[in-house]
Every structure is written in structure tokens, then in C-alpha cells.
Write a structure and sequence with these properties.
Elements: H1 2-11, H2 15-30, H3 36-53, H4 56-69, H5 76-88, H6 93-109, H7 113-129, H8 133-148, H9 156-169, H10 173-191
Helix pairs in contact: 1-2, 2-3, 3-4, 3-5, 4-5, 6-7, 7-8, 8-9, 9-10
Length: 192
């Protein structure tokens, strides 16, 4: 199911691709009588993924979608997500960029390439959310360079899905769709 694929990408830390599949799952719930538990997992996943990307507006939107699905029941997950949305919405973007830059420098200095790739991805996604597409594209190049250096394995699937998301954010829908189709083929090939 879409939810299982989304969870796979969430575990790998590829939150943009997770969101893509969660949105597909969300659309599928609109067309049928999915259980409240399924809808709850979809909205909870979307809230969490958008939080991790720093998109507070989307996180807040899906948190509001989640609340009626829980039928007024206060769950620990709901309270935790509410706390995170409220906390992160108070951090301004300049501070967020400063923290990311500090993390990038520390990761480079410590030669922690796994962590460096996570900071690159997070900064790239933050730039995308702020509609700074040219700067975001620089980080896909940095990720590719990191993979070529031999210090870190960058999966082709991650690069293709990230390029697809960048194209989508930049308004290049045909290119984005084409890249997501390529990503689905890679995913199917890896499954065999």
C-alpha cells in the first residue's frame, strides 16, 4: 500500500518521498471508506514529515486534519505532534539556517559523512520550502559529490526522488512526474 511505501522512505530519512507517498495514500482515503486508524496514520505521518522538513504551515494543516479523525480523543501521539508544531513554529528561519550551517561544518570537521548528508538534505529542503530553488539545487550537487568521493554511499533512488521534488517545487511538473516515474522503476527493480 501507499502507506507502507511511505513508511519505508520515512525510516530511510527521505521525507520528501515519504510525503509524496503519504499524499497518494491521502487521496486514496478520500475515494473510499478507509478506517479511521489508516487515516490517522496518514495524517500523523504527514504532520511528522512536514515537521521534519520545517514546513510549519503544512504540519499545522495536517495536524488539524488528524484531530477530527481521532474523534476528540487525546492520544500521546497527538499531544506530542501538537507540542512539536507549537515549538518549531516559534523558531525563525534565520536561526534555522544558522543551526544547519553549524551542523554542516561540525559534520565536515568530524568527517561524519552520514550526518553531513542529513544536514545537506535538511538545508536543501528548507531552501525549497522558502522557494530558494537555485540554492537548493546546489545541495543535490553536494550530495552527488559526497557519493562520488567514496566516503558516503548516496542511493540513486534518493537522488532521483530529490530531483523530482525540486522540479515540482520549481513548477516543472512534467519533469517532476518523469523523475518520479523513474524513481518508481528503480524501487521496483530493487524489490526484485
Amino acid at each position: 500500500t501507499f502507506l507502507n511505501i511511505a513508511n519505508f522512505f520515512g525510516i530511510k530519512g527521505n521525507y520528501l518521498t515519504q510525503i509524496y507517498w503519504l499524499e497518494k495514500a491521502n487521496l486514496s482515503t478520500a475515494n473510499n471508506l478507509s478506517t479511521g486508524k489508516y487515516k490517522s496514520e496518514v495524517f500523523s505521518g504527514l504532520t511528522s514529515a512536514y515537521l521534519k522538513l520545517g514546513n510549519m504551515n503544512k504540519a499545522e494543516f495536517y495536524l488539524k486534519q488528524l484531530e477530527p479523525v481521532t474523534k476528540g480523543k487525546k492520544t500521546p501521539r497527538l499531544i506530542y505532534l501538537r507540542l512539536l508544531v507549537d515549538f518549531y513554529s516559534k523558531i525563525n528561519s534565520k536561526l534555522r539556517y544558522n543551526i544547519l550551517d553549524e551542523g554542516i561544518e561540525l559534520s565536515k570537521n568530524n568527517k561524519n559523512f552520514n550526518q553531513l548528508s542529513e544536514f545537506y538534505r535538511t538545508k536543501m529542503l528548507t531552501l525549497l520550502i522558502d522557494s530558494r530553488f537555485d540554492e537548493a539545487k546546489q545541495y543535490i550537487n553536494l550530495l552527488e559529490d559526497l557519493g562520488k568521493s567514496g566516503n558516503y554511499f548516496v542511493e540513486k533512488l534518493d537522488l532521483v526522488t530529490t530531483k523530482a521534488v525540486i522540479a515540482g517545487f520549481a513548477g516543472e511538473q512534467d519533469k517532476s512526474d518523469e523523475l518520479f516515474t523513474s524513481a518508481e522503476k528503480i524501487l521496483l527493480e530493487e524489490g526484485n
